[in-house]
Amino acid sequence: MNVFDAKNYVEFVEVSLRGGLPARPRGMIKTVAQSIGCHSTFISQVLSGRGHFSHEQALLFCSHFKLSEEESEFFVDLLNRDRAGTSQAKLHFQRIINRKILERRSFQKRNKLQSVLKENQEVKYLASWIPSAVYGALHIPGMQTAKKIGDYLNLDTRVAEATLASLKSLNLVCLKKDNWVPTEHDLHISKDSAFAGHYHGSWRLKTASRLAELPRTIHQTHYSSVFAISNQVAEEVREVILGNLTDIRKKMVLALQNSFLFCAWIFTLFRANTLIKSVKNFNWEIAAHYDQRSFGDDER
Question: C-alpha distances in angstroms, 159 versus 138, 164, 171, 208?
Fold first, then answer.
């Protein structure tokens, strides 16, 4: 269990002591007790609700189980709420917990990303799929001229030239010895952008047209599903997705210096009954769509 999924700090203590096993390994409580400086019986009292960790013990517990700084802070937040002696104090700490949970649901805040473009610049970059496609193609070795990019993306050379000029006005690319090079390697568009929906939509439309025009290849992965699950499982799924997205994005950023494939990766998770009225009878509806497409020469 992730500490952010725990209902209270005691639940996370119990799960941590079991280490993913059905029962606690023999001697685990004694080992942890020695690590945090207390008697084994005290941990048993905490687990039964007859006692609470001190802040010092809580931090030692986090160190013992190698929790990150963010995880440790959240564990102490749970402790503060569960130890609070008045309803006002509990409400105060619950607000802190709620705010951190919401922040973790934001990919941008979770990964501490900053938007490179200003609002008045975003319209140029997000107007269609073409600017981001040209920008992405520039990261491929040997793809630094309008002619090559145009051929690669099946764009008229004049369109590629105009797009590169537009990207230059946004300080995203520059011209060096007749070759275009990107000035940014980690570009993020905030979900709060007024043009984010249009950007997502343009790539989804491109994906749909691609599916209709070309036969499937081994380089493509497509998955769509509509299903019903509980609210609890839905949140667990969301957490898994955000965690994996974080790991994938790190790999993508690290790989930019040696890019040989140009891929589009699209993922959407939402309550399907907001769009499909016929599935209202489900308790929880989610539609998930995953698309990964390689625009390599063998597919054009």
Answer: 15, 9, 18, 22
Say what angle helices 40-47 and 28-36 make with each other, to 10 degrees. 100
Strand order in the sheet with 263-270: 221-228, 285-294, 263-270
Interior angle at CA 260, CA 108 and CA 115, nearest 5: 20
Q: In the structure encoding, which two tokens stand for residue 8, read together?
A: 């209270």
Measure the CA–CA gap between 235 and 230, rounded to whole angstroms: 9
Name 180's bridge partners: 175
What's at 80, amino acid-wise?
N
Q: Which residues pair with 270 in a beta bridge?
A: 287
Model's pTM, two decimal places? 0.53
* Per-residue tokens: 178: 């007749």
Q: Indicate whether 270 pLDDT > 70.
A: no
Tokens of 57: 């013990």
In contact, 174 and 183? CB cutoff 8 Å = yes
Q: Which amino acid is at 175?
A: L
pLDDT tens digits, 97-130:
999 888 877 666 666 655 667 777 887 888 788 8
